[in-house]
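Consider the following assembly input.
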Amino acid sequence: MDIRLLLIDDEEDFARAVARRLAKRGVRVDLAFGGEEGLARLDESPADVVVLDMKMPGMSGLEALRTVRERHPLVEVVLLTGHASMESAREGMRLGAFDYLLKPCEFDTLLGKIREAAERKREQEDKIREARSRREGTERESA
Amino acid sequence: MPDSQYYKSLHRSMAITVVLVSLMPLALITLIGGYQYTEIYKAKVMDHLEEIVRKHEQNIDSYLLEKVGEIRVLSDTMGPECFRDENKLETLHKSLMTRHGGDFVDLGLINSQGIQVAYSGPFRLGLADYSTAEWFRQVKKRKVYISDVFLGLRGIPHFIIAVLFESGGKEWVLRTTIDFVSFNELVENISIGRTGLAFIINERGEFQTKPRIDLSAEVPFLKELLRKATAGGKSATPFSGKRVSDMVVSTIGPNPLTGQETIFLSTPLKQGDWLLVYQQDSVDAFSDLSHTRNLALIVLLIGVVAITFVAFYLSKRMVKRIVAADKEKEMMNEQVIEAGRLASLGELAAGIAHEINNPVAIMVEEAGWVQDLLAEGLDKEGNMDETKRALVQIRTQGSRCREITHKLLSFARMIDPTTMELQLNELVEEIIGLSSQRTKYAAVQVETELDPALPTIAASPSEMQQVLLNLVNNAVDAMEKDGGTLTITTKRDRDDVLMTVADTGCGIPKANIQRLFDPFFTTKPVGKGTGLGLSIIYGIINKMNGEISVNSAVDVGTAFTVRIPSAAKSGLPAEADGGNKG
């Protein structure tokens, strides 16, 4: 199963280390080191899952999340938060994030979450496709 | 904690205030009441004395009138032939003597030439010739005459009442001698207190009654009194008529005899020929008053002493309470400062934990990466190099962690509240290092302009950290929304050190500037701020004899300026260990 992932985190070294390990496990990782940058990257190349750090200088994680939900409603978002920003994680869940993980998190947990999120996105897309084909079928029948 | 001098003056001013406030009404009541009472009492005493004098004047006048009346009745009803008969005269005289308590000593009839033609009495006077006597001349003029008291021919004090009547175209005079003793008793019985006495004097200042004590020295004065008393015009009423006006004159003045202040009451008698005088020393007359006054004074004195004592005692207790309260406040302040310190330390710790989180996370991932590589086998192309790189990264991140914990440790080591000499610049650098994480995420640029020639200050390092940390935290909070620049400046100002912490944040509204340093005043939402930060800073700076001021414009920024006396100025005892760096 091929997953396209966008990892948005201001800590470059961390992001790269995680990206390397994810790549070993067949995840195609794109990196961005800030909110704006991440959004731009997402507009250029589509992704299934976005892993988003809540606490970043400049554009905050919440804002980035809000924009992602607006522009790419199908993309699932996994949040990374510290203990200090639990409140914003809850807010993120309300905004429709897939789940959140406390930093520092186990790599395997992160990987699992990414896979679950990608799975869910597939299901959603399948449903949409089904609905669309059904509608097209009815349209064809009615035509 | 204020010094003992402050409490002493507090005690003094409290006590004095209480004493004054308590004594003022007491003194006023005593003065006003005392004055009123004195005046009223004096007036009452004078009224009473006047009444006595008036009564006696009436008594004396009516006594004289009565005696004159008696004689006139005789002269009207009995002809001279009746008096000329010695036997009849004697019968008359005896009857008068028995019915009138022996007042009429004798009775005599005198013809118009002044020759006594008949006589009844104890003295064998025979045909005495009175033609040259004063009383005879007067009676011819006035028809009725009461003489002054005189010793007369017989050396016994008495006075004469003589009545002129006409009978058969001839003038006769009926004359009687009145016993002076019984008359004298009338007046002498007036005796009040120790010194109150009454007497009668005539126009020439001769005593008509015998006063209890020798008053001859008073005569000139009494004469003056007499002159005054009669100056108002002699009583127009003859003895036969009704008394029209009372003429009681009262004067209070020094008695020339005793030098004491004396009350004199006088009233004319006998159409102003005589003067009834009552005199009494003021002290004696108003003795009850002086008793009362002494009592009042004693009460006042006891009151003053009691009030003073109580005021001093109470204010001492109050001051003790205040001292205790101040001590408690001091302790509370220290506790609050400690609490504030802990709060800001907590904030700091959270920031630091967050800061440590990242390198730790990197180390974990890199280690995991190495494990991945090992699972693949190190002989695979590039895996060895990759492993080496990862290990270097792990080391790098490890030392980053160590640095962070060192910062925190150096901070925690300085929880010592003792005052020492320290360099503010170093403290500023340290705090900026500790706050770097916060400022980074709030998009705040930190700029410092530190004066390299800054003198040291005498302060408790932990308290100064508190000050700086709170100011920096506030500045960052103010800029959290859209970032900005935090500028910390230190410079020397004569013997003081000036530090300014300026931000380009939201600023403080005018209305809040007043309450800025009040404890528990906060604009932050519940749970975010305690409202203690600035009040703690204020307390700390105040304790160091420093000042803190604020300049702020809404939406432009805020600058807090702290002025702290240098160590040299605050006279810190030289420390063996000048610094505090560990």
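The interface with chain A takes residues 350, 353-354, 357-358, 360-362, 364-366, 368-369, 372, 390, 393, 397, 440-443 of chain B (CB under 8 Å). Ask yourself how this observation constrains the way the partners meet.
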